[in-house]
Amino acid sequence: MRISLQILLFWITFGLQAQEFYNGVSFVASRAQLQKEQLRHLAVINADAAALMPFAFMPDKQGPVLRFNRDNQWFGETKAGIKQYGALLKAEGYQLMIKPQIWIRGGVFTGTIEMKTEEDWLKFEDTYRSYILTFAEVAEELNASVYCIGTELKRFANSRPDFFCTLIEEVRQLYSGQLTYAANWDEFEGVSFWSELDHIGIDAYFPLLEKEEVTSAELIPAWTPWLNRIQSVSKVYSKPILFTEYGYRSMKYATAKPWLVDRTLTDVDLKNQMEAYKALYEVFWNQSWFSGGFLWKWFIDYPRSGGTSDNRFTPQNKPVEELISSYYN
């Protein structure tokens, strides 16, 4: 565990337990098993942790039945796949975060999940509980460092706080590690159950500057309002902040709406990605109340991923890899 004196004093002052620091990647599932040689590329960026994401599926945002661990899913999204990926990553010395995520047909945002009736809410909660407890057991079996009880579920979390408090208690009976919830950037201040968790998790796609091209010198002060709000929440709950996801696309306007996945956006800009990453690291990576993060995203097939003509999120085979490596080191 790498702990500076500044961080240790902060934890003592605010009654925090010493936390690991995660220089992580969000590991994208594949149809196939993970091979040991596919992990050697993580050394390119000095990563020491990986988030694994078992997926569950809904037909629409009001469909009360959640389906997961099915034969027609990609292997890496299933219980068997998470176990296989996780065991290999652990054997190679990587820390793990298990981070269940929901996919709604058509890519509808999960933050809008909201049932029509109380009967539907109870049915949905029953299947969600089964989903989360299933992978809590897997996280315990793998000795994962962090388990995430949900990802970007704003309306669900706001509407059913008692359910989440009970769920956290049930998870703690199965899993002995650290717990978090991955709040979307626009909901982290309103989550009612942070006090029950170990990290305040944020998917950190904060809007910064609406400019075609940006520099880190411009972006660092643009972070100040968000930085103050994030630090304030950390102090209120005496919990460290964990970026359960963070990242930027290699494109024009990369920091205007960093959450965009629109495939019609085609203008590649590798420098924008570099500058955005640099600003984020400069602002957060030495904060005493910060416990690292998991960049979005990292594919198994490294030689065929990313590249200088790719405008997607992955940093693979792009100039930003060298920058990430310097901060992750």
List keywords for this structure.
three-stranded mixed sheet; single chain; 17% strand; disordered N terminus; 11 strands; eight-stranded parallel β-barrel; alpha/beta; 329 residues
Short account of what is shown:
It contains 9 helices and 11 strands. The protein has helices at residues 5-13, 79-91, 118-142, 154-159, 161-174, 216-222, 224-237, 270-284, 320-328, and strands spanning 22-27, 49-52, 55-58, 67-68, 95-98, 101-104, 146-151, 178-184, 200-203, 241-246, 290-298. It is globular and about 50 Å long.
Break the fold down into its secondary structure elements and pairings.
Layout: H1 5-13, E1 22-27, E2 49-52, E3 55-58, E4 67-68, H2 79-91, E5 95-98, E6 101-104, H3 118-142, E7 146-151, H4 154-159, H5 161-174, E8 178-184, E9 200-203, H6 216-222, H7 224-237, E10 241-246, H8 270-284, E11 290-298, H9 320-328
Parallel strand pairs: 1-2, 1-11, 2-5, 3-6, 5-7, 7-8, 8-9, 9-10, 10-11
Antiparallel strand pairs: 3-4
Distance between the termini: 13 Å
Q: In one word, what is the shape?
A: globular
Mean pLDDT score: 94
The DSSP helix count reads 9
What is the strand tally?
A: 11
Q: How much is the radius of gyration in Å? A: 19 Å
Portion of residues in beta strands equals 15-25%
From the helix content, strand content and strand pairing, which structural class follows?
Answer: alpha/beta
Task: Profile the largest sheet.
Answer: 8 strands, parallel, barrel
- SSE series: HEEEEHEEHEHHEEHHEHEH
The low-confidence parts are: 1-18
Strand order of the largest sheet: 1-2-5-7-8-9-10-11
Helix content: 25-40%
